[in-house]
Design goal:
The structure is a homodimer. The first copy, chain A, is α+β, with helices and mostly antiparallel strands. The first copy, chain A, has three domains: about 15-160, no CATH class; about 180-250 and about 275-470, Alpha/Beta hydrolase fold, catalytic domain (Rossmann fold), CATH 3.40.50.1820; about 575-790, Jelly Rolls.
Chain lengths: ~800, ~800
């Protein structure tokens, strides 16, 4: 395991001493005490579960200093303390095992291969001891926490009486109890009346916060989560994708729906300090839990149309964004909340310092981006994980209906329906059923599945168009193998934010659509702690400078993360790969060459049980039972590795024997190799400890799996009628060649030397596009086909 | 979903009233109040998160009574209340959704198909209202908890001031706070000196217990868990199984190892009321957590040789059992514990009422069985899940080394090594390294992998031989598809306990080696709560009569559990199935018939990447690439379903062209069908709420999966040299026919009508037995081969 700690700050001796003093680990007077006394004092503090000195001694007695000496023996008869001896003890304290994991003769060798920080000074004096101890406290244990976090979880701060919040190494420490949280629900009044009942929509808002010293106001981590109050079963409402590609005609513009007037705010009939409803939240996010003990409240809201709130779901609309930021406005003192829906008793977020960060993955992260594009005051930063930045890029591509993976038939109406959890309360649902049915119909009209084109509906759901308004600093996290929210979403918002001048950080991992807060190879919680301490408490920890702009997980080796200056930048070098009948090649073709394939892979797909996962594997592997449905070309084995960085542009010259057609492209890494798993493996169930009170998450890590023959690098799809743009329909004359030119999903992927880069051109994609029944024959003019690949070096 | 509630007790009206009064839900005076007043009072109590009356009213306002009437409207203008109306409300309270899950016109229909209890009386009067409310409180919500548990988790008992513990419907309720547990470690002194240091072994014991009213003593759920303090990586220490079957010679009896003398107990230098060490336990069991809030302490101990304890691991030995029960003896006041290892300060379990139950799965459950066979005082009951009852049945079978599935090469020495977590503390390990190395050598001698025979070593590890000493009542839980701890372990101890007269309960599920406390289809936690309230608090709830002797999950339908009088009883009817070249058949064969197969499947296994999972599938499915390595016979499609109950006996007449040989038998259900998954699917992450303080488990359930072609019913293996017994070696003359007769693993399995019962006879099993290189040819005399199948009816 390599422990990549981007958030470990190096401080000078004076600063280290000040911080150690603050937590009782190195008294100012200690600088003149014997070294062994200071070392012994520190070691005693390393066993906070031991209440008595005897108990501490017994814990100490289990440690060895080197091959000859136990720690107990050393403390009884102190001599000089070497760096080797110190790090032998340090590694034991961090949870590593003598003999099996590291050798007492050379602990530093293990620390180097594990990427654990150390100082080389030897033998130690009081100054180097204190800097070594400081460094150790900020270094990760075997289970992926800083050692100080580990001590805190074992009771280190139980008797702490110093100032709160407490920051150490620039990060907030777990000095707030989470076993006695204030858990409450209030109703924020949004400037909306989406359910058209003549009253502003009230939004149930759940707050979990620690009890704090008098006078302390704390910031909030706010997660806007449409799934928070449960979801509806929409299996029966999925659109069928077993249908023909339409010959497009320009749609009749839908009649503009008048925006209903917004009623006046409720009158205020009084004020309360206490909420009237206890929260019993179950769906929480580990990162929020982690920060709770460190002095950051957690705020959750489902938003309009979710259970206990007013309004209706509108999937990506402006109203949804307005609903999302209403909570921030309340936290920031600019909007009202009430204790209940009846009495108009106002309750203020008087506990909040007005600073808010948004967190969450997928739709949750999407709403964080939506909120940021409003420039709402109080929103200091967002941590948007696997977030949509334009809903067109979620449900469409180049004039095609293209589903998120494993979500064939889903669309904005289905998702709105899924999240409309007001349906769960029968009497409440009855009041709003018709309004919501009308809204679903509006969504169906606007999303226009029949053309798949970009239109006003999608433009209203493209947050990137509002990027200029962003004032919050932004952390983006995305999986390079996320085929649910595809990487274009993160790449385009990353680029769109460049001109704004806000601080931007980007973390790209090799997983799918997942959270990555609980992996030992990356100090994700530390980085976010550093970031949030900076953003919400104003701690001068230089977080924007400490963290690299971009952190990308290596796809060849486990537990390997690199800092980069940028990702997918416009100035990447590019290399053209040409198509010949025999290969994908760097050499320009000389002879004309045509190939054809048939698009009838739905037939075989159905014969084989309509299994999309199986289809993807069958379609990509060699040999493929779908060989007649594709053109597959490969390079010769690469002499050197190739690091693709950004979006490959595919240019294809193609004809189809039908009046409509589509092209799909897969770019594949061929070569037998152990590769990282698609999802992280479990390292230890409940192994990632979030708080001293005992909240945990599972500890997981991407590990190299048994060797496979290939790995999909990226993909893309285009409607031949949209060869000019995703808004323009051009006719397709059967058997006439047209050139299409489109970007595949962006990536960062190293193809190893000896591997072959492959491309598969085909038409309908059983897992993502419509699945026409009509058998179409496609021709490609290979001379005019190419991949334009941006690349970089590691 | 069908909610099978075996622990729901039906009580008379008087008892219901008494219990409802105790929790404030139905005052004695209420019997003369208007029905609507009583109904309103109850409904208000159903929203404990609502602090004010307004807030309660708003929650009530979301409920409907029927298609015309909301609950609010009804309460404003009360009329008669029908059973249909009551159960409409009840289902909404239980979390079911109007319209999508049940219809307001007929809630009873849904309750019937869901196996939810109801009363038919209509319209309701005060008496029927109170019995209906009582019944509702004991009925399961959609997430698999009683409604009263659900209310408790939402704060119902937050203001409870009545007596504790509190029992409702015979089960302890969550009236103890778990957010402020006492968490402590003490050192129990066992009457052992397994590490031969001249001092009795001290065993670190972790106690988690709620704070209780003065004077209350509570019972303990004790989990003996050798993995509690972590495990060692033993991948390099697995035995190779790529080796030939030995031609056995009788082994030279190992020299008896003298039992080291047991030192005198430590002197007592004082007494303490408080422990000296806080516990920071992470590896806990959900069932224990669930019971903590209900007034049952949790006690965990790793036992000898685990981190923080003395001694060495001895895997299944008498010393291990003595170490296990030392904790019970302390809890029961018959053994000493100390606050630390140094000062000899005694600490008593003064908080404990002396009554102990043991819980846990696999090795943990095994130690529960071990402890029970000592008859130790204070151990009132054990809940042994997936437990070993004889270690020979775990690592051996009929004179063969047979591994638990996915554990090829493991043996008692490897497991002892794996659990010897003292290795994690370098200074501690150094003291005991040699003693433990010697012990491992003793284990290797005793386990005798070269013969695979039963011997004194295994006899000492056969707990069933001590079954007559069992005094504790016993609950056994086992997966019928558990190929780690195979079902013979549970079947044999079930039978062995029959003469003892202790209470015995048995739960057989269709899973593998898993816990089943978190499945909505079975009220496992309720049953155990009922049982433990009876056993440890002496509650007169008639638990032994309420719960069926045996509960078995159906293998054809999801969420279907049946109560049975017994399992695998000796008086089951039996049916002989004969082997002919064409089929497995009920007709006795007339003509002689010989078939042969070759045992060289290791060759293909290696060519295909040594993947045991793949091998099992390839070997069993049709057609099989391993066809030359097996005899496969099938019945004609069954005209009627067949419920196999118990152990199939295989009789085979076979010859091999080598001086040693083995036979394996698989019995298979062939027929395309949707079957239950091998492991339960996730229903809701964190969906199973254990305590009001917020501990959760994932909610899971066995669901029908996409159709498959076959399912393995059972299996067995035998060494031809052990055709007489597992202790006797008989020579195998090449090409000479011998008859073997042996039991396959017991099961309870319904083969559906139309399916074919199949049998596969083969030799080496890549996943379980040794894997000889020598290519052997086996012959079978089919006329003398048969399966003798015990069966029953549902």
């Amino acid at each position: 395991m390599k422990f990549n700690q981007f958030a470990q700050i190096h401080v000078d001796t004076e600063q280290a001493l000040t911080e150690l003093q603050a937590i009782g680990l190195f008294a100012a007077t200690a600088t003149t005490a014997p070294l062994a006394t200071n070392f012994a004092h520190f070691l005693r503090c390393c066993f906070p579960e031991a209440i008595t000195e005897t108990s501490q001694n017994e814990a100490l007695a289990k440690l060895v200093l080197d091959e000859q000496l136990t720690v107990s023996a050393f403390l009884a008869q102190p001599t000089a303390l070497t760096a080797t001896q110190f790090y032998n003890v340090a590694l034991q304290l961090l949870g590593f095992e003598v003999g099996t994991e590291f050798q007492l003769a050379d602990p530093i060798a293990f620390m180097k291969t594990s990427h654990l920080a150390f100082n080389v000074a030897t033998p130690l004096d009081n100054t180097t001891l204190l800097t070594d101890i400081y460094l150790l406290l900020t270094t990760h244990t075997k289970l992926g926490l800083t050692y100080l976090d580990d001590l805190a979880n074992r009771g280190f701060f139980a008797a702490y009486t110093g100032p709160r919040p407490l920051f150490f190494n620039g990060k907030a420490q777990a000095v707030f109890a989470t076993d006695d949280l204030i858990k409450e629900v209030v109703y924020v009044e949004a400037p909306l009346d989406t359910d058209q009942d003549g009253k502003r929509d009230l939004l149930a808002t759940t707050i979990l916060r620690p009890r704090v010293p008098a006078g302390l106001k704390i910031p909030a981590l706010y997660t806007a989560n449409p799934y928070f109050k449960g979801i509806n079963d929409v299996a029966a409402k999925l659109h069928t994708v077993d249908q023909e590609l339409a010959v497009k005609t320009d749609p009749v513009a839908a009649a503009k729906v008048a925006t209903p007037p917004i009623p006046a705010p409720r009158p205020v009939n009084g004020h309360a300090e206490q909420a009237e409803q206890h929260a019993t939240a179950n769906q929480v996010y580990s990162l929020n839990d982690y920060m709770l003990a460190r002095g950051f409240a957690s705020v959750y809201a489902g938003g309009i149309g979710t259970r206990d709130s007013d309004g209706i779901r509108t999937c990506g609309s402006v109203a949804e964004t307005v609903s999302t930021i209403a909570i921030i406005e309340w936290l920031n003192g600019k909007r009202r909340a009430f204790t209940n829906r009846t009495d108009n008793i106002e309750i203020k977020a008087s506990w909040c310092n007005g600073n808010v960060a948004m967190t969450g993955k997928s739709y949750l992260g999407t709403l964080a981006i939506a909120a940021a594009t409003t420039g709402v005051a109080g929103l200091k930063t967002i941590i948007a994980e696997a977030a949509i930045s334009s809903w067109y890029d979620y449900y469409r591509d180049n004039g095609l209906v293209v589903a998120p993976i494993d979500c064939q038939g889903e669309d904005t109406d289905v998702l709105a329906d899924l999240c409309f959890s007001r349906q769960k309360d029968a009497a409440d649902y009855a009041k709003v059923q018709q309004v919501f049915a009308d809204e679903l119909q509006q969504l169906r009209v606007g999303q226009e599945r029949q053309t798949g084109n970009y239109n006003d509906f999608w433009a209203a759901r493209n947050y990137r168009d509002q990027a200029e308004h962003v004032k919050a600093d932004v952390v983006l996290v995305h999986g390079l193998n996320d085929w649910n929210v595809k990487p274009r979403n993160v790449e385009k918002i990353w680029q769109a934010l460049k001109p704004t001048g806000v601080q931007r950080k980007l973390i790209l991992h090799q997983g799918q659509h997942i959270y990555i807060n609980n992996m030992p190879s990356l100090d994700f919680s530390d980085m976010l702690n550093l970031w949030l301490s900076y953003e919400l408490y104003g701690v001068a920890n230089a977080a924007p400078d400490v963290l690299p702009n971009v952190m990308i997980q290596d796809n060849l080796q486990a537990a390997t993360w690199r800092g980069h200056h940028d990702w997918a930048s416009a100035d990447r070098k590019r290399q053209l790969y040409h198509f010949t009948p025999a290969a994908l090649t760097l050499d320009e073709p000389t002879d004309a060459a045509f190939v054809s394939f048939k698009d009838d892979n739905r037939r075989l797909f159905e014969q084989r049980g309509r299994d999309e996962v199986q289809w993807r594997d069958d379609f990509t592997k060699e040999p493929s039972v779908y060989a007649a449905n594709q053109l597959r070309l490969k390079t010769v084995p690469l002499a050197q590795s190739l690091v693709i960085d950004g979006s490959i542009t595919a240019t294809l010259q193609a004809a189809v024997d039908q009046p409509a057609g589509l092209l799909s492209v897969l770019v594949v890494d061929y070569g037998q190799a152990q590769r990282l798993g698609a999802t992280p493996d479990l390292v230890e169930r409940h192994g990632y400890r979030l708080t001293p009170a005992g909240q945990t998450d599972d500890l997981v890590e991407f590990k190299l799996q048994p060797a496979t023959d290939y790995k999909v690098i990226t993909r893309g799809h285009i409607n031949l009628q949209n060869r000019q743009s995703n808004t323009t329909n051009l006719p397709v004359v059967p058997n006439t060649f047209y050139t299409v030119n489109f970007d595949l999903q962006p990536t960062h992927f190293q193809v190893a030397a000896g591997h072959q880069l492959g491309v598969i051109v085909y038409a309908s994609d059983m897992g993502m596009t419509l699945r026409p029944q009509t058998v179409a024959t496609y021709q490609l003019d290979l001379n005019a086909c190419q991949l334009d690949i941006p690349f970089t070096k590691h």
